């Protein structure tokens, strides 16, 4: 919160009027009004008296804070995501960078904001110059996050940087950073925590923690299956690649994943095979599934998880970007020779 917001909140909590503040400090009521609007600020000599009057300390009044809490960061990131429905990427980007300037040493904020901006940049249509500048600055955020004393923050930054190096074929840099990452400890803290909750009779907490762990594990498994399918293609093992795609679909259905997940592996398989018939058969299902909600409520696997519906703005942007890729990527050029392809795509434009 900013100074004026804190001042107003404290004053209202104490049921003081702006006139009360003015009389106590020997200033005019319009002056106090300007302080609360952020138009001007009180003289530095008045701050100790103002803090005492509002029953707070100077650090709180001046909103001095080196770090944000995880909850505060989560709220901020949700606000950023909500902006994508009504704002251009540059507006979201500028708001993010302003927050980082306010908390330059909050490394969790840096790495989390960088990851969100990364995702938004993929889903946004921006000029290449703007994209290049944003990507450069996002990478700098990951690099700054490496200075954190929180292992999970450093690990996330390392993971994102390694991915970027590999995409640019900077394999030596990727290898060097990979060597800095310690092998994962065999101790599973979340499993132990869930066991402790269960032993204490806190069954809902134990179940919630394990359900969240299951969801993350399934998503990691889908990522692994996608990579394995691509490797099977590179080794010219098409039957194995098809088997892996079918496994991915089955896993998505068994573990109640977003419907889109059950189509994407087969779609990618048929595209790699340049199989016009099967690609066009699955394409409408894929594009339709993107706009369908992922509702986990009531499913026994995720009974205790607090969930929210997918952001419709995100779904719309995702569908738009997939269509753009279909219309322009070299890999899908074989589809653009088919009238049926354009008939399908036009239904979703």
Automatic annotation (TrEMBL):
SMART domains: HTH_XRE. Pfam families: HTH_3. The keyword Ribosomal protein does not apply. Keywords: DNA-binding. GO terms for molecular function: DNA binding. CDD domains: HTH_XRE. Residues 7-61 form the HTH cro/C1-type domain. PANTHER family: HTH-TYPE TRANSCRIPTIONAL REGULATOR XRE, TRACRIPTIONAL REGULATORY PROTEIN-RELATED-RELATED. This is Helix-turn-helix domain-containing protein. It comes from Copranaerobaculum intestinale. The lineage of its organism: Bacteria, Bacillati, Bacillota, Erysipelotrichia, Erysipelotrichales.
């Amino acid at each position: 919160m900013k100074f004026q917001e804190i001042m107003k909140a404290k004053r209202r909590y104490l049921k003081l009027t702006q006139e009360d503040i003015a009389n106590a400090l020997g200033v005019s009521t319009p002056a106090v009004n300007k302080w609360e609007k952020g138009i001007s600020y009180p003289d530095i000599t008045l701050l100790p008296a103002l803090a005492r009057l509002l029953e707070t300390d100077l650090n709180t009044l001046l909103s001095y804070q080196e770090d944000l809490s995880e909850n505060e960061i989560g709220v901020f990131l949700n606000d950023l995501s909500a902006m994508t429905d009504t704002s251009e990427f540059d507006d979201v980007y500028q708001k993010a960078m302003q927050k980082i300037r306010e908390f330059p040493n909050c490394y969790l904020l840096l790495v989390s904001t960088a990851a969100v901006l990364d995702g938004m940049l993929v889903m946004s249509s921006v000029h290449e110059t703007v994209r290049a500048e944003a990507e450069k600055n996002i990478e700098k955020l990951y690099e700054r996050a490496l200075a954190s004393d929180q292992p999970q923050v450093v690990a996330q930054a390392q993971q994102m940087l390694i991915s970027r190096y590999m995409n640019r074929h900077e394999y030596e840099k990727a290898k060097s950073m990979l060597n800095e990452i310690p092998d994962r400890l065999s101790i599973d803290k979340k499993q132990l925590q869930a066991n402790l909750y269960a032993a204490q009779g806190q069954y809902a907490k134990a179940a919630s923690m394990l359900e969240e762990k299951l969801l993350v594990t399934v998503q990691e498994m889908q990522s692994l299956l996608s990579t394995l399918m691509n490797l099977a293609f590179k080794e010219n093992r098409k039957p194995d690649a098809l088997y892996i795609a079918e496994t991915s679909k089955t896993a998505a259905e068994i573990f109640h994943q977003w419907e889109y997940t059950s189509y994407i592996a087969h779609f990618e398989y048929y595209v790699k095979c340049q199989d016009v018939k099967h690609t066009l058969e699955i394409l409408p299902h894929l594009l339709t599934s993107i706009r369908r909600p992922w509702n986990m409520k009531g499913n026994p696997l995720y009974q205790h998880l607090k969930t929210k519906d997918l952001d419709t703005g995100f779904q719309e942007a995702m569908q738009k970007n997939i269509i753009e890729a279909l219309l322009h990527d070299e890999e899908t050029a074989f589809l653009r020779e088919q009238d049926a392809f354009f008939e399908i795509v036009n239904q979703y434009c």
